[in-house]
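Case study B.
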Amino acid sequence: MNPEAMVKIVFLILLAEIFTAIGQILFKKTTNMLKRHSLRSVDTHISFLRDVFGKPSIWIGFFSMAVGLVIWLIALANGELSLVFSIGSLQYILILFLAHIFLDEKIDSMKLLGTLLVIFGIILITMS
Amino acid sequence: MKKNHLTLKIFSLIVLNDIVDTIAQLIMKKGLVQTGISPVTLSNIAEFVTRNISSTLVWLGVLIYALNFFIWIIILYKIDLSIAMPVGSTSYIFVPLAAILFLHEYVCPIRWIGILCIILGIHFAAQSKKGAESESRGYG
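Model:
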């Protein structure tokens, strides 16, 4: 792969990740807004889903995810799988920080260490 | 009551989510390969989209993705996104293990180290109990 094509693929992957991460943040924002659901029967699951789909943020999240998926598919079709998935693993650190900023989720040493180990592991697996 | 604690039930849901996700990825990849357009450029992007829209495999992949969304949203309802994400990387463990067991594939030492790192990473992320929310919700 020539350098120019490589830069293009990396740019596509990062763009896909940003859209996907925004989607995930919006999904979690949505579930944070829900009222209490027991989720013990079919009925309670249905009312749970009604509650979920009644929030506009879930639909914006879907849209962002869809855009991310299309860009991701273009990257997959053009780039080598190992490259796409290695760079794709940066998603974990991106979400860790976005969740801290937008969802007030705490970053403790366990989460950070766990996330970094997962990224390192994915890079080892996909590059080898 | 514990808050945002990763229970076995939620962990099982995350594993299920990963397995279904892997199946969807494989089906979609198959569909994309079948369309036979590579590389995708600005000039053939319209053809790329039309061919994939008429691919049954791509649609099947999308459908399975949609179903998997329900599992994911329940997971998010229960625990922090920043815990669900790293713990949700179990597919990187199960796919190679399945490949060894069922396809008798060889896994090189570097991959084993990678798998070990992910197992440790999941272990550490699962230890994190500092959630943003104060209330605990159902599901055992």
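Chain A has one domain: 3-127. The remaining cases will be described in the next quarterly update.
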